[in-house]
């Protein structure tokens, strides 16, 4: 029995070594075994789940225009052939995510939470950095690699069918590692700086993360576990790359768009509350 285990271990290690790829941004080796077309198929499943029974914000709304402006300002500084596609969901949920096919999702609850456009820009840069750094592809590859090895062992010794039902939830609910979160923080900060957003917005967003963590009310923190060291890492990186003024926010009038978006969200909340109060019991 131990020989079989040893053989599987050696085979797994050899296969992993062959399939490891060095990330040019971080210098870290990643296991990437999932073809892009498979990831795209998984993204379709994830998008269907994300959009199911959700109210999608129309493109003519202020909140969409604000997020779209921030998004396009950031993505033009990303060296990628991906076609970025933004969807804004009308929900109290404080969350945002970016899928490996270029799909970006932002919930209005996040916009309602932040006080400055730089804070929102950091979250978006962080999420886009997960895509840039192949974190989703790595997560899927590692979990499928380990899972299939385990399933093959069960299949070989016990028999039965391989259970692949877990794949449909892989892109939606499973969190990334703390190492990946730190990498996305650092890469996101660099992207933020490159796009011209004030990097102190990242530090301010971390303060809000701490408050949300204490309340336990954020979907964003459910898949992005808060580390006490993340704020310190960001401050250290800011010392390396330097402070920068938010010229892009002024030049593109993002502040006005942001202000209008916040007002629109407030009006919508008041309107919904009014409807609830006037509705018959």
Polypeptide structure, described:
There is one protein chain. The chain is α+β, with helices and mostly antiparallel strands. The protein has one domain (34-268). Helices cover 62% and strands 8% of the residues. It has twelve helices and six strands. Strand 5 (96-98) and strand 6 form a beta hairpin. The protein is globular.
Q: What's the domain count?
A: 1
Radius of gyration: 21 Å
Order of helices and strands: HEEHEHEEEHHHHHHHHH
Low-confidence stretches: 1-18, 162-175
Q: Kindly name the structural category.
A: alpha+beta
Q: Report the biggest beta sheet as strand number plus sense, adding barrel if it closes.
A: 4 strands, mixed
Cα separation of the termini? 68 Å
Shape, per Cα inertia axes: globular
Strand content: 5-15%
Helix content: 55-70%
The tally of helices reads: 12
Number of strands: 6
Mean pLDDT: 78
Q: How would you write the strand order of the largest sheet?
A: 3-4-6-5
